[in-house]
């Protein structure tokens, strides 16, 4: 029997998840059906329960429901608990299991696909929203030499760093304090690029950088990537690899088989020039 999965978000029209999971299913010989559901803004829980009650086995969750999905879950894995958000649910009887694969997907893309080591690296993460929160535990597991989180609203970065204190050292910073500092890896986890805006990061931070990574994908050379390129950063990437890698983690969690991601990432990558 075909097992059913779905991604739920609002809006959902732009989602690439059904295509990604159909491609994984074909490559691994798994019999699944994966659809997209536009969740009602005032009825997320009802939509999830309806999907499960109709035989659904699991869901991916995207904006704006990642926090509500966390609240709805009965069993929360550590990454989801620390992120306070979930992007994947698995249904087993009346249990709703929650995990968060965004951060591990990002780390896989940086270390495996792009070949940039995070161990011993000085890492600068811009933004302190849900994506940054989900990235911190997987980042700390890589043992960076330094992990700095910079945010426009400094208090949010400070609260975020404090909440990870028992897992490792995260340094909170305002953008102004970054002047004169250098980082091996600079990651833009703000949503500024969605509005073609540039977080106020000083160009100095890129002086020794090996990689500038933009979480937003499909927008070509964003103001952040342009700044990094002009500062001479040798490797630039957008978040398409992260998207595919987090999908592969969810697929493995649901189906017990991890699909290969490289060919799909290559197919989906839009040149940044
Ligand atoms: P949130 O809304 O939770 O957080 C947004 C963050 O961006 C905040 O830290 C906010 O700062 C900051 N910000 C917004 N505008 C600006 C600006 N003009 N200058 C400086 N900082 C700014 O979003 P998420 O964390 O959920 O997502 C962030 C981005 O990551 C999104 O664009 C999303 O598309 C992308 N993403 C990509 C994924 C992928 O698979 N590739 C997966 C998940 C997310 P402040 O606190 O001061 O408001």
Automatic annotation (TrEMBL):
<dbReference type="Pfam" id="PF18317">
    <property type="entry name" value="SDH_C"/>
</dbReference>
<comment type="subunit">
    <text>Homodimer.</text>
</comment>
<feature type="domain" description="Shikimate dehydrogenase substrate binding N-terminal">
    <location>
        <begin position="7"/>
        <end position="88"/>
    </location>
</feature>
<dbReference type="InterPro" id="IPR011342">
    <property type="entry name" value="Shikimate_DH"/>
</dbReference>
<feature type="binding site">
    <location>
        <position position="62"/>
    </location>
    <ligand>
        <name>shikimate</name>
    </ligand>
</feature>
<feature type="binding site">
    <location>
        <begin position="127"/>
        <end position="131"/>
    </location>
    <ligand>
        <name>NADP(+)</name>
    </ligand>
</feature>
<feature type="binding site">
    <location>
        <position position="78"/>
    </location>
    <ligand>
        <name>NADP(+)</name>
    </ligand>
</feature>
<dbReference type="InterPro" id="IPR022893">
    <property type="entry name" value="Shikimate_DH_fam"/>
</dbReference>
<protein>
    <recommendedName>
        <fullName>Shikimate dehydrogenase (NADP(+))</fullName>
        <ecNumber>1.1.1.25</ecNumber>
    </recommendedName>
</protein>
<comment type="function">
    <text>Involved in the biosynthesis of the chorismate, which leads to the biosynthesis of aromatic amino acids. Catalyzes the reversible NADPH linked reduction of 3-dehydroshikimate (DHSA) to yield shikimate (SA).</text>
</comment>
<feature type="binding site">
    <location>
        <position position="239"/>
    </location>
    <ligand>
        <name>NADP(+)</name>
    </ligand>
</feature>
<dbReference type="Pfam" id="PF01488">
    <property type="entry name" value="Shikimate_DH"/>
</dbReference>
<comment type="similarity">
    <text>Belongs to the shikimate dehydrogenase family.</text>
</comment>
<dbReference type="GO" id="GO:0004764">
    <property type="term" value="F:shikimate 3-dehydrogenase (NADP+) activity"/>
</dbReference>
<keyword id="KW-0057">Aromatic amino acid biosynthesis</keyword>
<feature type="domain" description="Quinate/shikimate 5-dehydrogenase/glutamyl-tRNA reductase">
    <location>
        <begin position="117"/>
        <end position="193"/>
    </location>
</feature>
<feature type="binding site">
    <location>
        <position position="246"/>
    </location>
    <ligand>
        <name>shikimate</name>
    </ligand>
</feature>
<keyword id="KW-0560">Oxidoreductase</keyword>
<feature type="binding site">
    <location>
        <position position="102"/>
    </location>
    <ligand>
        <name>shikimate</name>
    </ligand>
</feature>
<dbReference type="InterPro" id="IPR036291">
    <property type="entry name" value="NAD(P)-bd_dom_sf"/>
</dbReference>
<dbReference type="Pfam" id="PF08501">
    <property type="entry name" value="Shikimate_dh_N"/>
</dbReference>
<feature type="active site" description="Proton acceptor">
    <location>
        <position position="66"/>
    </location>
</feature>
<keyword id="KW-0521">NADP</keyword>
<comment type="pathway">
    <text>Metabolic intermediate biosynthesis; chorismate biosynthesis; chorismate from D-erythrose 4-phosphate and phosphoenolpyruvate: step 4/7.</text>
</comment>
<feature type="binding site">
    <location>
        <begin position="15"/>
        <end position="17"/>
    </location>
    <ligand>
        <name>shikimate</name>
    </ligand>
</feature>
<dbReference type="InterPro" id="IPR013708">
    <property type="entry name" value="Shikimate_DH-bd_N"/>
</dbReference>
<feature type="binding site">
    <location>
        <position position="87"/>
    </location>
    <ligand>
        <name>shikimate</name>
    </ligand>
</feature>
<feature type="binding site">
    <location>
        <position position="217"/>
    </location>
    <ligand>
        <name>shikimate</name>
    </ligand>
</feature>
<dbReference type="InterPro" id="IPR046346">
    <property type="entry name" value="Aminoacid_DH-like_N_sf"/>
</dbReference>
<dbReference type="InterPro" id="IPR041121">
    <property type="entry name" value="SDH_C"/>
</dbReference>
<keyword id="KW-0028">Amino-acid biosynthesis</keyword>
<dbReference type="InterPro" id="IPR006151">
    <property type="entry name" value="Shikm_DH/Glu-tRNA_Rdtase"/>
</dbReference>
<feature type="domain" description="SDH C-terminal">
    <location>
        <begin position="239"/>
        <end position="265"/>
    </location>
</feature>
<feature type="binding site">
    <location>
        <position position="215"/>
    </location>
    <ligand>
        <name>NADP(+)</name>
    </ligand>
</feature>
